Amino acid sequence: MVQPNDQNNNREEHHDHHHRGSGIGTVTDVGPGTLADVPDDINVGVRKKTVMFGAGKLVTFEDAQQEAGTGMYQLALLIVCGMVNMACAISTTSVSFVTPAASADFQLTSITKGVMNGAPFVGMLIGAYFWGVCSDINGRRDVILGSMGMDAILSVGSCMAQHLQYFILIRVGNGFAIIGATCMIYVYFGEFLTGDKRDAYLLILEVFWALGMAAGPGVASIVIPLEHVWIDRPDFTFNSWRLFMLLTAVPSLLGFILVYQFPESPRYLMLKGRMLKSRDVLERIYIVNHSRKAPPYSVDSFTQTYSAIGFFDVGGMPFCMNLKARLVALKNGHKTLFSQYLRNIFVTCTIEFCLMASYVTVLVWVPELFSRYHDYEVRNAEDGGEAVNICAASHWLLKHPSDSAVKHTHVGHQAYVAAFVVASSTLIPITIMGLLIKCVSKKILLWISCGIPAVAALVMTKTRDDFEAEILCCFFEGFTTLVEPIIFCTMVELFPSNIRGVAFSLTVMCGRLGAVVGICVFGFLLDINCHSTFYLLATLLSIAFLAVICLPKLKIGGSH
Known about the structure:
560 residues; 3 domains; two-stranded antiparallel sheet
């Protein structure tokens, strides 16, 4: 290797001094001149002297991660991240399962039910960007821990709320909390994976979301219909639906405990300049993934890519300088995002908005829709219970209000069973898509995932009974649930690590804005023109279908 000239020596000395002062690029064991012929924008490390590699061989971070391998470590982390994803699913949808039972306590109408269901998504809209910025400054792991802990505490608080306005306010807080883990768990897990395995593993992570979607109505169908009141005082009531809300805190608490056992992602640590920690995490992964007889991990050290300097740690500075440095880094990240990646972020935000405005809307209104249909069947049982379209049943109930409510036990059970079936139906498409993503372009998969549910939404207006409606809901939810994980896989490829957290958060924020709009508009239109709501859902998915065309060409089987 050619020794560097004096100018290069001075540059490296100054660069090292700058790094030690700011916490970037701390500690590398690279000898003088080792990196002189390496372009400044390449991540490199040095292998230890071994029989296989010889002495002082350069290696990129990607090669070092590839050597660490994908195996038992990633499988264990998949289960942990899966538990977090399940907790996110349960927390996101839990309110929709208590609205029928909480109607008597809070005197709910269709409008207030829409507000109640939309409350968590308002919090998500506020929190998505906040957590994204935090993840790029403080780390993915810290965001997930803070998100899980905050959600568990607020879930306990929501079961204690005795007034609707307090309940809604607390659920806004729940949404603010849980969105951090919802969008960062994919980034966190994805940064532990090599490019060739990333897409398949991230889609498997979506299976846990589907399990959480099924677990919610499953537990609700057991707990809420009990209609037992444990505490009944003039100023405080604790009944079965409040017990269900309390139980939703358990998955978040479990997710917090499990994630705490794992380190920050090695890629994030490398970008932050924590080279020794990054290398130690990769070595830990290597040890877990390989047998004890395997040779020691060969990578000795790293140096940081110069393009990651804006993605930095600012420890050890006075408060004002620290704050200024963080704001400058934040401004530079946004400048990069909206200049070099403007089209990509616009397309992903558009797809996410249209997706969540349709997917979440149907998801949270399924219990209410099928509760109304069962109410219609019970009240028309003496006339033979003629099967009708689900919208016709809802319209009939509005024209024939009942003085005495249908018993909640039966209504709730039917609604939760329908929600359970719809949520469980997503497992098959996710499994198939997990196999196809290795050999089919993600753009084609996105077209399929947007096109089929758009057709299902149109056909929903032609159904003749609740069974046909439930089948179409299964198709609708089964395919729309695939769009977000595929988009997340795509975004890992579209955006570099130093702006990925903000890009994810902006996209998720637009999605939650769509969810709020969809839930509230659906609740408003449901009592005015039920059929128009499904036409609107089909239109939104058609827009997402067309937006996919604007995505750049994507790699098949992951990014390498």
